[in-house]
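User: Sorry, what's this?
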Amino acid sequence: MVTLSVLSAKGQKARDLEATLPEVNPHVLYEVVKWQMAKRRAGTAATKTRGMVNFTTKKMYSQKHTGRARHGDYGAPIFVGGGTVFGPQPRDYSYTLPKKVRKLGLAMALADRAKDGKLLIAEGFEGVNGKTKEFLAWATGAGLDGSQTVLLVTANELVRRAARNLPWVRTLAPEGLNVYDILRQEWLVLDMPAWEAAQARLASQGKGGEA
């Protein structure tokens, strides 16, 4: 059981909220982040093999009676510009991670921010209507001055638009909440609908996307 700070719509601390979150296991967080990074890899690295290089396949010179080593075509890997042996080819780096582990990782990421007192839940964003200066005023009132990075999670498009121009704020919709982005930023701020969506996601047994 952890105690979370709930901010009023004006950015002032309004009350505390009790939540049940698991103990943090760094290895679980590592496994989930590794899984996320593997899914995001493009896997497009490629080199040309001997059969792909643009050289004639004609034999360089006669096999015998030259006094030189025997060779085939100019595309052989031992020559400059020749094909690469065992070079990278396009591949899919993604793999399957159990849904229970993904959900546990998300819960632990929330717990990690909560234990440091860096998880805030906002009841709203009063006065924020799409302008950066409006969100900056709200954040300053909430004690977020830009000295540390913030992950802002809200379904309100106007609030996300207002915050996304600030270099120290990363914004996400509630369905995009994931372990990697939580751990990358020093503070996590969710509005109440986003917090409830996260709790429902952790409690559900259905299929999920990135944890």
Observations:
- Residues 99-115 form the longest helix (17 residues).
- The chain has two domains: 2-41+94-203, 43-92.
- The two ends are 21 Å apart (CA to CA).
- Residues 43-92 form one domain.
